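## tool: complex_structure
## caller: assistant
## args:
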Amino acid sequence: MEDALLFANFSRYVALTENEWQLILSKSIARSFKRGEYITAEGEVNRYTNFITKGSCRTYYIDENGQEHVIQLAIRDWWIGDFPSFITQQPGQLYTEALEEVETISISFDHLQQLYSDVPKLERFFRLITQQAYASFQKRILLNMGFDAEQRYLDFREKYPAIENAISQKHIASYLGMSAEFLSKIKKRIHLKLKTRKDSL
Amino acid sequence: MEDALLFANFSRYVALTENEWQLILSKSIARSFKRGEYITAEGEVNRYTNFITKGSCRTYYIDENGQEHVIQLAIRDWWIGDFPSFITQQPGQLYTEALEEVETISISFDHLQQLYSDVPKLERFFRLITQQAYASFQKRILLNMGFDAEQRYLDFREKYPAIENAISQKHIASYLGMSAEFLSKIKKRIHLKLKTRKDSL
DNA sequence: CGTCTATTTGAATGTACTCAAAAGCGGTGG
DNA sequence: CCACCGCTTTTGAGTACATTCAAATAGACG
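## result:
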């Protein structure tokens, strides 16, 4: 039913023929996860690349002190998973948790390799979205190094308003590399600034 | 002369025929840079993807306060450039500086697009190395969030001993997201720890 | 409605930074 | 061959941004 969303996603980079699209569909499966269930888990091989058609997830890892760190947040129309594990087909380090009822269209590693051969455009598609993801990771590193917590939050809010509404501040704070308490303090500070500005007008 | 190094680099992921290899070579050019010259610069479109055959570089950006932040360090047998600018062919934000005499084998964006069509294996190669680079960026974000400055330095030293010898501590500190002074203090602290441990044996 | 989790707030603390100055190192020219 | 210059590294003192811990409040879900 949500196939159209996936088709539109592909169409941003490649023009698939009806045959190619049907071939891809025939190798795809629908999966669904309840709130709190895991799409990937530490120590397990991530066998699927997952396109979210409904719900939201967070991908995180747990450091040696038991602390969770959110690597990625994702909502409808995004691809999600433990990418390093998927491409190497080795056990991964990341958990991907459904933050609510989640539905995906997923392609297994083996099917994807087949599809790369049968539908070369798909190889192009994944090269392009990986390059995009790489570029945005680079921007994120850049952002984490050059900017303080408040600026990082403002940038995030501007870039992903849809995520800010869908996902709890706790996870957003972790994604932004700060404590939940500190994010709360930042938001207060920003409110005060805006109010002060209005008062002085 | 250093073509063999590039061929070996390709061979890590794809098996090229002699014809394919010659085709790639015919679209490649050798470039060289003196110490201090720029391979990419802010505001310019990065027209080439560059494979380093000699020397070392750093890729950095300058934030709004005029501070430099090293995104990437690279030596012989690595690919370098302003990736986001290259893939979009839009003006970039990054400087790539030759830290000493540097030689590269470079392929222009246009030639590369042609080669993707003529040599599908090349599209596979770049998909694979981009995925690798993506995965390593992910690890870097993970590392920056979960670990303090000392642990990040120790991890770096273990992972890239060749780079630690080739490139000044100042740039390494920047790459690791800390001030040069602080890296110096960390190194002293590590020495003291080792000495103390020896003394107590 | 009650419980469980998320968010807010405050106080004390710490990690890493800035600034300034001294010491080390490498290259260049007299 | 040595002296000087510029750049990198080291060291110390003071500071700031962000954290941890604890407690109170608010919100979500059954």
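## assistant note: The first strand of chain B starts at residue 28 and ends at 33. Residues 168-170, 180-181, 183-185, 187-188 of chain B lie near DNA strand D (CB under 10 Å from a C1'). Handing back to user.
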